Structure formats: structure tokens, C-alpha cells
Amino acid sequence: MKAGVNQRPAQPSPEAIPSHSDFGKGEIAPAAENQNGAMRTDTLESALETATCLWEAVLTLRDHPATDPDAIALALAIRETCNAVGTADLRLTVVGWTGAVETAWSAVADGYDLCFDWDFVPGWIIEHIDWSDPAHPTIRPEPLRQHTDSAANAGPVAALPPSLRPPADEGN
């Protein structure tokens, strides 16, 4: 588990979810195997955790924006993308950002005082994703700088909204 990531909830009963060995490894094997065919579970689990954090952050930014205009503009842009490409395609696009987020996290993890899932990932999305083309949200070549004037930026959001965290009753 990444440092700074909130603790995982208690595991459901074994009857509710099949064991890890029951999942079809054939679907993920080409991406998760090394040259000798051995599974790199630490890398795979890290990438899966990052991908889920990304998707959760996109949904939170879309469905629970802060009340400031930049956060609302971002929520509307994400909704427009969902309408243009569909949720399944957007989810696959977001999964494609996993490597970039892990690279960015590895550069700052030792000195980052906040948590990975509720602070770093949403902030990375806000600073690095260009939602201006609803059919093709992309990683910006240069991230937006926080504390800049939103009118000077091409993207819908210029700074991290102050209330990105979900309500406390979500338990994360």
C-alpha cells in the first residue's frame, strides 16, 4: 500500500468475494508478468490501486464539486466528457493515466505531507488533465500552476478547489 493512502476497509466475508486465486489471470497476465512469467503482484497491485484512486477522484470531482466556480467548471467538463464518450471509455482513458500519476507520485512521495488518494490524485487531475475536448481528455504537456489566474489558463480549472475531500461519512 502506498504511504499516505488511507487504510483499507475491513475485508468482506470470504463468501461474498472470490479468492484472489480465482480471478482469471489470463486477462492481466501480459501486462503483469515479467520475462520469466512470474507475476509482479506488488507492481500490479500498486497500479490497480492508483487506477482506482484516479477513477474515484474523477467521479468525486464530477459529482461533488466544491462551490467555487473552477470546481463547478471542472465538474461540468467531466460530465460533458462522460456524455461524449461514455463512462466505460472514460474509465479506460483514466486508467491510462496510471503510469503518469505513479511517476509524479514517486517524485514527491517522500516530501508530500498529505495523502495520496484524497489529496495528491485529485490535485494531479486538476493540474494535469485537459478536459477542453470532451471526446479526448488528455494529459497537458505542462501542468497548470496553482495560484494562477484561471482566465490565463486554457483548462477549466486553475487551482485545487478547497473542499475536494468527500464528506466524512464516507469513511475514507
Automatic annotation (TrEMBL):
Residues 1-36, 137-172 are annotated as: Disordered. It comes from the Bacteria. This is DUF551 domain-containing protein. It comes from Novosphingobium soli. The lineage of its organism: Bacteria, Pseudomonadati, Pseudomonadota, Alphaproteobacteria, Sphingomonadales.
